[in-house]
Specification:
The chain is α+β, with helices and mostly antiparallel strands. The protein has six helices and 16 strands. Strand 4 and strand 5 (76-83) form a beta hairpin. Helix 1 (105-121) crosses helix 2.
Length: 318
Amino acid sequence: MQSLIWTGRHVSRALFGGICSCSSHSQHQQYPLSSSSPSAAATERPGPEARLVSAICGFPKSVKKRPAARNQIGDDAWFVGRHKALEVLGVADGVGGWRHYGIDPGVFSAFLMQTCERLVTSGACGTSDPAMLLARSFRELLENKQPILGSSTACLVMLNRETSTVHTANIGDSGFLVVRGGQVVHRSEEQTHYFNTPFQLALPPPEHSGRVLSDRPESADVSDFVVEDGDVILLATDGVFDNVPDSLLLAELIGLEGVRDESKIQGVANSIAWMARSLANDPNFLSPFAKSARHNGIDAMGGKPDDITVLLATVAFS
């Protein structure tokens, strides 16, 4: 995401020449990176329990080098957290427009996701309220002794293994979808104030306080649903959804239903990330982002170069 939204005026994103030059991971990228691993052992509760077998792949928009936090891809950040009967996946997309004001957009999103991960793995959060988890992480960011300025979208997917129930919280234009029986059965709703202006958590510099659109964690769109053995869950930043049509995503994900082989899941995560990267840089492709721009009266064509983060998981009962 590469916008900075001021009350009363809109600073445009990459489609219109871009106001930022997104930077890459400080280390040489060796993506795809895999977080594939089974969750903790099942509790003594009788009967099968759900677990997630997951993989991560991503590409930064830019190849420039800068110091980057763990689990960071450009201005995107992600985590996979587990504690007893709880598993949580999360992605966040830092608003790149802050770089124009001397603020590193990736610091905000990385802090948000790292704090969520710590709260999950320490057992300091519940098993059914990802919005509260997001709110606690955001509160720690606001209370940090060293101000962490910027803004970010965020999406969390929380699995309660004992009840086989997924609880989600999404704020902005990152998101998730669930595939079962060859079709999308659950999907997040994109939250935007208006075109190319997603909801976002924010901590602006004092001189800009009150002038920057800032949404509260309580504004997150939430949902709850029961998962089934073999379900496929895709969690991604808008670098994926803005560039890859649902039909192409579904074609990739259908083949993963019921798969528990980590290498196969990793391969599909790689494929989706590569596809998003390729289409983002295709000037002749009518991307979902370009279609949305046209719907809003903007004559656009091609993909939208952006940081790309793909978190992919299948549900396995054991």
